[in-house]
Design a protein that fits this description.
The protein is mostly helical and 329 residues long. Helix content is 56%, strand content 2%. α2 packs antiparallel against α3. The longest helix has 82 residues.
């Protein structure tokens, strides 16, 4: 390699040759040997500072800084170093130390009680740090679990209630069926109809006698309360209907006797209204025609008096425009 050095104006240049090494330096050789042993390059991650929890084995508590929140203590515990019980012990120790109350000032109120409570808390923290059974859940006693309480399905409860109601209904229906069957057995073999049809006018005397006989009703004492009430309602309704028929006929006859007269009066009233409407229309037409004629005559009279009867309207307006001063005054 030639290196030219300028020594000022007017001076010549001297060339110097520097020999470069063709072999590795000692440091490069050392690095190669180290890579042969480890198989990879040296990492600088292992040279960083250790976590605070790595000092547990050396007997140091290593409390995190006050600005570190207690919810983030787990981030400051090394994950690959101690076992899980030891990490739990360290976490509980840190939380307990953070929860300790401050020492009261000398001579303050209740300072002795606060110091006594703090001494108890310190002793508990020491027990946590010394005794492993306080934080080792792997060595805990296996407590038998209480038997599981099996609750019935609400749908099954609802179905059971429906089954009970349906069974009661079936029993009641069976009892009613037995009562009806007992009543059927007590009835005579042939029972006349409850409401026999009326006999024709040219019928025999025997048919008239049968139609005149009142129908035989069942004994209410043999029926239930509801059935007896139904029978009473039917008998009362038949009596009321028999009384209602002549009243209805009399009312219809009274309405029919006056219906024709009322219809005639209605037709007469409608005819009179139509005639009055027609007369009013004719009168209105005459009044309007007469008013139009009077207006036309008054217009002709005014135009004749003004001398503009035969002049067109535009000519009259032009004349007025020439007569009137500017500004419309």
């Amino acid at each position: 390699m030639d290196v030219d050095k300028a020594r000022g104006p007017g001076t010549g240049s001297n060339s110097k040759k520097i020999a470069l090494p063709f072999s590795d330096t000692p440091i490069m050789n050392r690095n190669k040997e180290m890579r042969k042993k480890t198989g990879s390059r040296r990492s600088s991650l292992g040279m960083r500072g250790r976590r605070a929890s790595s000092l547990i084995d050396s007997g140091h508590s290593a409390i995190p800084h006050r600005e570190v929140d207690s919810a983030e203590f787990y981030k400051h515990i090394e994950a690959e170093g101690p076992s899980e019980p030891r990490r739990m012990k360290q976490l509980m120790t840190w939380c307990g130390e953070r929860a300790l109350a401050k020492k009261p000032k000398l001579g303050s109120l209740n300072s002795n009680a606060v110091l006594g409570a703090r001494a108890i808390q310190d002793q508990l923290l020491k027990d946590f740090s010394v005794k492993s059974e306080f934080s080792d859940w792997f060595a805990r006693e296996d407590i038998p679990r209480p038997p599981a309480i099996v609750k019935p399905n609400p749908r099954n409860i609802e179905h059971d209630e429906k089954i009970v109601r349906l069974e009661e209904r079936i029993k009641r229906l069976k009892a009613e069926k037995k009562q009806w069957q007992s009543l059927k057995n007590k009835l005579p073999p042939e029972l006349p109809p409850l409401f026999p049809p009326s006999a024709p006018e040219n019928g025999s005397s025997s048919g008239q006698q049968q139609s005149q006989q009142p129908p035989q009703l069942p004994d209410p004492s043999l029926l239930d309360a509801e059935e007896a009430q139904m029978l009473e309602f039917i008998t009362e309704s038949t009596g009321k209907l028999s009384l209602l028929k002549p009243q209805t006929q009399a009312r219809l006859q009274a309405l029919q006797s006056t219906l024709e007269f009322k219809v005639d009066r209605l037709a007469d009233g409608v005819h009179k209204v139509e005639q009055r409407m027609a007369a009013a229309g004719r009168q209105a037409d005459q009044v309007l025609a007469l008013s139009a004629e009077r207006l036309r005559e008054r217009d002709e009279r005014e135009r004749t008096s003004a001398g503009t009867r035969d002049m067109p309207v535009m000519e009259v307006l032009r004349s007025l425009g020439r007569i009137l001063p500017e500004g419309g005054g």
